[in-house]
Amino acid sequence: MMTYTEAENYLNDIPKFSKKTTPENTRAILATLGHPEAEQRFIHVAGTNGKGSVCAFTAQALMDNGYKVGMFTSPHLVRINERFKINGQDIDDETMLKAFHQVYELFQGGHPELVHASYFEFIFLMGMLIFAWEKVDYTVLEVGLGGRLDATNVVEKPEVCVIASISLDHTEFLGDTPAQIASEKAGIIKAGVPVVYDANDADAAAVIAAKAVEMGSPAYPVSREDILITRADNDGVAYRFKNKAFDETEYCVRSVATYQAMNSALALTALKVAFPGLKDLDKSIAKTQWGGRMEQVLPGVYLDGGHNADGIAKFLETAHRLTCPGKKYLMFSVVVEKDYDKMIAELCEKSDFAGIVLAQMESYRALDVKEMYDTFIEHTKAPVIAGESVEAGLKKALEIKGQEDILFIAGSLYLVGEVKEALKALS
Predict the structure, then answer these.
(1) In 234-339, where does DSSP find H-type helix?
(2) Which CATH superfamily is domain 293-426 in?
(3) 308-336 tens-digit pLDDT
């Protein structure tokens, strides 16, 4: 039996020897495991940005109405256990190891017909076991990448499908237009299963609507025009639906990010469609927290996992709106496969940060801090400081930030996770 650390190291090494396999292989593995997914009822959530938040809002409402809920999301910020939640709580190490070993043992020579799962596929298989063991009433399931060929798409008939915001990301796999990416995301739509989707991008929305018609699936588009923001300040965001089906209820989200109004509106619409008898949805929305999305971790310090061009645009929208008597600073890092030049250009051209601190993340996917530095100084005249690690960068950023200033930390969810670890060390 491996220890937790040994199992974690094994999982982290998978990308070095195994790549994404086929849905047929995933189904064969699930069959060998005894089809742990077969008795589960799913809410399936795809999208470029916002799908984790949609999952969190949905799971909270179901829990508050008395259901036992499993939630599978990615990536984790600090520990792998975060990807598997039972009624809002991360699974314990013992359960994580039990699931790990049950999947691991399949690839140790006894089943030569099975191809070793990729990292995400392995984690997904663990989740299916865990939620089956826990006998959850519903599993809220976040897609990893795309939708059509994603490991999670082996689920056959979810209660409802949700497709959050569509934008350009992972273009090397999904296509280089919103319509092409939407086509991949729309692959989760199952025959006759209702689909709720973000309709703010007209091209993407048209693709999803057409797929819904093809599959005979009731379709429920949601856009910014469907909600009325009634408050957006340093304490949070509140809104009402213009749709009479939601009467005059005001929904308040704990985040200062206006994009969370849209994400919660998608979740609420899905809940109304699939579970019309749920009560007190406004209270569930108000209590939902989702880490790393404009999360305030210290006074005047916000973490945001804006990890692509659209995420940065939404981050900047909130950063501009928040007020403070002092200055605004940015701490940034990004992974190498992102369109980081575009992200950095937008950060510099559409903001007035008084200073920028860069940090070298530990992830093998991290962009070299020197490359980031060289790119930033091409686009800004603000002071730019490079830290040799996230902890070093965070220390420098906190030293610079005055009591009346705001520090934003953005660019990658991996950065958010490392900052959370560094904050523990500094406390």
Answers:
(1) 259-274, 281-287, 309-321
(2) Mur ligase, C-terminal domain (3.90.190.20)
(3) 778 888 899 999 999 999 999 999 999 88
Domain 4-287 class, CATH top level:
alpha beta
Domain(s) labelled CATH 3.40.1190.10 in the chain stretch across 4-287
| CATH 3.90.190.20 domain extents, the chain | 293-426
List, for residues 139-154, the tens digit of each pLDDT value: 999 999 888 999 999 9
Tokens (6 digits) for 306: 């804006």
pTM above 0.90, yes or no: yes
Three-class SS of 176-212: CCHHHHHHHHHHHCCCCCCEEEECCCHHHHHHHHHHH
d(CA 378, CA 395): 25
Query: Does residue 332 contact residue 357 with C-beta atoms inside 8 Å?
Result: yes
pLDDT tens digit string along 230-283?
A: 999 998 999 999 987 788 899 999 999 999 999 999 999 999 999 999 999 999
Q: Are 291 and 78 in contact (CB under 8 A)?
A: no
